[in-house]
Amino acid sequence: MKILNCIIRKVALGALVMTGFCGTLSAGAGPAAYLNQGIGARAMGMGGAFTAVADDASAAYWNPAGLALIDNIQGTLIFQRLSEADWPGLEDIAPSFSFFNFVLPMSRTGLLNAGVASLSIATFGIDNIPLTQMDASGNLSRGSFTDKESAIIFSAGYPILGDDMLIGLSIRYLSLDFDGVDGASASGWDMQIGQMFHLNQYINLGFTLQRGPTMVWESGYKDTGDIRARLGLAYEREFGYQFDLTSSLDLIQQKDMPLQASLGAELGFNPHIRNVKKLFARLGVKELTLEDRHGYRARLNNTLGLSGGFGARVAHLNYHLDIDYAIVNSPMGSDHLVTIGLGF
Question: Could you tell me the domains of the chain?
Answer without folding.
Answer: 2-343 (2.40.160.40)
